[in-house]
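User: Can you fold this complex?
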Amino acid sequence: MTNQLSLAQGREYLAIPGPSVMPDAVLQAMHRPSPNIYEGELIEMMPALTRDLCRVARTEHNVAIYIANGHGTWEAALSNVIAPGETVLAPASGRFTHGWAEMAEGIGAQAEVIDFGMSSHWDMDRIAAALSADINHKIKALLAVHVDTSSSIRNDIPALRALLDDLGHPALLMADCIASLGCDRFEMDAWGVDVTVTACQKGLMTPPGMGFVFFNEKAQAKRAAMPRVSQYWDWQPRANPDLFYQYFDGTAPTHHLYGLRAALDLIQAEGIEHVWARHERLAHAIWAACDIWSQGGALHFNVADPTHRSHAVTALRLTEGRGTPLRKYAEHSLGLTLGIGLGMEDWDGCFRLGHMGHVNAQMTMAMLGGVETAMAGLDIPRGQGALEAAASILAQ
Ligand SMILES: Cc1ncc(COP(=O)(O)O)c(C=O)c1O
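Assistant: Here's the predicted assembly.
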């Protein structure tokens, strides 16, 4: 027993950009004994599960499921279409693009990175220049991170497709929508994406541990021309299994599948367009509060232009390295966990708000109230009326 009063007692709230809040329906679906993995319900639920996953990614093509996190899907996707010695182009607006490019190098590819820094979205002219200079079409794929969670920048995937088409460049368009699927609008087929990678622990609201690679015929043609693909990463049997175990190349992630089924049911009941609209409205409320706080001169958005901000994560900067103290105050004194300044040069001066997946208006107001309280507790200068500004957006 401690003699100190703690206002952190009670249900804590995790407002980091993944893993996200898990809905009770997901937790309850997983709270069950191990199922038979050779016959019955688990096997029978797979066709509808893969169909519904494809619906969320807005594709009529294929999906391969991996027992892996997002890093695993990066390697899985690359392993199917990029042979050692081939080149990929990675336009980077955050830490995760660099990570994917490093993964490409790890499998023996050459990665050309165009670095836009931590606060700028893609500059299409620079990407166009790199593609135009590639007259022999050495570049086999673009590694395009839709929302880079470290910076909270949202990039324009359709514009990248348009650029490839205008230049007649045949590179595959590979998109990472790990932080955007089920949060921000993402439309694989309509946007002309050839390979999409994502994972289950953000907009899909399921515990970390499953990853998905979606691919179309153009990507499959490249896969078919590969000299070799490691058996475990090979997407062919996973997407077209003759036998149940081929979905996973071994034992199925039984409870994750039940959790994912429940999460997909929630998304379907709400409707994906409404899921996107909810995230957008909540993001605008958060930004309205941040706009007011920033009047005090200490808080700044990492991404100045709202049209290039993610609707699922917001990266913020605080002067005098006060991001880490704010996070610690919020966690230890209030029971609110905020995201770290991942990949930022000024790590301690940054923090991130996660607002992805199973999040509603009252959770958003509680998170903002926590940030306001932490700023008050640390005496951080800020404009007044931030919560009122957020409330008026939510009340519209
Ligand atoms: C955009 C993006 N790509 C890749 C990853 C890596 O995923 P994981 O941490 O599941 O390996 C993350 C994780 O946050 C991410 O946000």
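The chain has two domains: 13-17+271-394, 25-269. The mean pLDDT is 97.
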